[in-house]
Each structure stands twice: as structure tokens, then as C-alpha cells.
Amino acid sequence: MHYVSTRGGDVRADFRSVVLSGLAEDGGLYVPASLPVFTEKQIASWSWLPFDELVWRVVSPYVGSSMDESTLRALLSDSYRNFNHRAITPLEQIGHNEWILQLFHGPTHSSKDFAAQLQSRLVEHFLGEVGGEALIVGATNGDTGLAALEAFSNCPGTRMAILYPRNGVAAEQLSALQAADPERVQLFPVDGNFDDCQTLVSRLLRNWPLDGVIPISFNSTNWVGVLAQIVLYFHAALQLGGGTRPVGFSVPAASSAEICAGYMAQKMGLPINQVIISTNSNDALHQFIHRNRYSTRVSNRTLSPAMDFSLFSNLERFVWELYGHDGSSVKALMEHFEGCGELSIGNEQWLRARVLCDSYAVDESQVRDEVIKLFRETGSAIDPHTAVGVLAGRIHRRSLGAPMVTFGQIAPARSAALLSELGVWQTEVPTTPDIFAQPPYLGKGDLDGLCQALLSAQQRHV
């Protein structure tokens, strides 16, 4: 297995190089040159496997010769030891052929733990082989940064740089970020939104200022962020259909990594009949699927804050697949998007996406109504992000005969205040912690200031 860049060129890398990276050398994203394809019989034979064994079957072809089998098996098994449910990601039935895949039983109670826990162990292993020091860098509006912070807390040879919107992180999450060891973690509040943070990180990775320090992205621009999600589709489909029955998925669009992963899982042979991209009022992905118009825009603050942005890095990988791995076309499209903030793909490629994907945007009143309705009818409490996916899945499912699985990405307890207000949550709502004083913030395009701060910290560290 080898990897290439979504933007073509002569880039060619093995799995180890991809793990220890931010972006490809030409500014694109690393993608496998080809996908492993499994037969229906092979996939069906996995239905009895425990979770870590299934992970090995799905992940090992992507690792190739970069790691021996026994080491990889042990690493994968260890990646899920801090999850607090014996099923790792259990399924909860909420209606006729309607299910929630609970992805919030990891150490920080969000789906971001799947990628972060796997990535930290892969980085530790490969960094031990090549030696040197790495800076784990990325942007967050809460969940992604906290998952990375927890996962890399004891990873030798690494430090972290986390960018976040100055006024866009919940108080309790901000307090958790600011409680990190300042000797290992640099925090950079940015005077802008999450999209501005993402853009600044991408520019940083393309203009890396630290000689001798390996830049590694903890966002899903790193291929591990997608790979960890592919497994989740296989797990759910095998539980509900044994690998032979078509299954649909509704994915609250807190990341385009899940969308890309679903498309790839189907190409690998999994019988997925539909992926619904469910959004809140920040509907950039909905507009892309529904109208073939994707653009960055001002993000609204909603009840589902993990989806309050419009810049989706993994859309580039999805477009690369839709264009049949044509790197030159993808490069032209993405450079146009980076220049003007708008993107439309060819009609043939858009129709290819629509064969699998539908989309729906859910407004705030619908979110509240769905949380209350589901609790009254099933006794299940769900957070607003999951409510977005559940409603979209119910409205837009193509087949009542195929199970519809919503990705439940965040634990209900994280939305205790809202659930209590709606009469759903029955336990005491935790008080909001005090917020520490924030460090000086960066202007949303201040790459020079960010680079200078990293250089100064590196000199102190040395």
C-alpha cells in the first residue's frame, strides 16, 4: 500500500510517512493510491468478530508493510482500552429500523476519540522508529482538541499547538484546554471563527517554520482521521445486516471525514445504500450535495456547536474520489476554492455523489422538538447533534426496509443544561466552571505571529 496526494504530482509515501505528516508536500491531502476491496462473503464472515479484530481486518491493508502484524494488532487493541463500554460503540434502537450508533464512550465522550486514540499510538510507534521530535498541531472548537490533548498526553517526543476561536469554545471545554501543561501545550486563541483557525493551520503546515521538528496534524487532514471512521461503518453494518443487507447512515456533519469514510467504505464492498449528510443552519455541505454549490460563509451559533463552521478539509478527498483520482483536476478546483471561497464540481461528478449521498438542514426548533419527541416516545435522551442526524435520517431515508443508523457523536450529558431545560434530563446539571485568563490572541490571518510564537517556544524547549 502506498499513498499519493489529492493534487497529483510525484508524491508517493508509505503509511508511516502519512501518519507523521500534516499535509502532502504539494499542499494536498494524502490518500491511498487504491482501496482494498472485499467480497460479500469475506465481509459476512466478519459478523462475529470482536471490535478490535474487525478493526484489524479493515485497517491492516492500509498499513501494508509499515508495521508487522503482531505489533499492529497490539496497537489497535490498546487504542480502545480507555473506552467505557464493552461493545466500544453500541447500537441503540429508537424506532422501526432506526438506530443510533453511540460513538461517545471514549475518554472525552465524543466521536473524536476514535481517531485521536489511534493516531497517538501510531505516532508514538513510528516516531520511536525514526527518532526526533514532533509538534502535534491543529484547530478545534472544542471536541477535537480535547480528544487530541487527552490522547497525546503521554506520547514521548511530542508537544502540541492548538488553535481555537477566541469566542467560539464552550466554557467548560475552554477550561479543560487551559488546564493543559503549558510546557507541552501551546494554546492560540484566534480572533475569528473555527474556519479562520483551520485556514491558519493549513497555511502554517505549508510554511513550516521549525527545522528538525516534524509537523503532524491532529485534524482529519491527517489520513488516520478518515481511516478510524471507515471502521465504524463496517461495525454498524455487520451488527445490523451481517454484511449482506443494505444499510443507510445519517451523519451529523461535524466533520467531512465521516462522509469521505462512508463513500470509501461502500467502494470497499460494504452494502451501504445511502449516506445522509445532516447539518444544522450552517449548511455548507447540504448546499454542496443538494445544489452543487459549496462556499464558506459566516457561521451561526447553534444548539449543536460542533457543527458551527463551513470549511471542510476532507471535502478534497471526497472530490478526488468523485473525479476518479484525477489529481490535476482536483488541484485546479481546490486552488480556485482557496482563491474565491466557492466550489462547484462537474455535473457528472456531482451526480455520482448523489447516487449515494442525500442531505438535509435542520433548524433550531426542529432540534428541540426532536429531542423532546424522542424522549417521550422512547425514553432516550440525545444531544442536539444527534437530534439533527435522527431527524434527517427519518425524513430522507430511501428505504424503510434498510436499517437507518445515525452517528451519535457526543454524549447526552454534554448537553445537560439544554436537556434539563427541555424536561428531558433528570439529573443535576453541572455548574459552568470559571474560565482562566486567555493568552494574547492572534489575528485570524496572522501567520507570522503564529510562526514567531512557535519558534520562541522551540528555543525555550531546546
UniProtKB/TrEMBL annotation:
Keyword Lyase: yes
Residues in Threonine synthase N-terminal domain copies: 2-80
EC number(s) stated in the UniProt entry for this protein: 4.2.3.1
Annotated keywords: Lyase, Pyridoxal phosphate
One Pfam short name: Thr_synth_N
Cofactor(s) needed: pyridoxal 5'-phosphate
Gene Ontology molecular function: any one: threonine synthase activity
Family affiliation: Belongs to the threonine synthase family.
Database matches in NCBIfam families: thrC
Protein name as it appears in the record: Threonine synthase
Lineage of origin: Bacteria, Pseudomonadati, Pseudomonadota, Gammaproteobacteria, Pseudomonadales
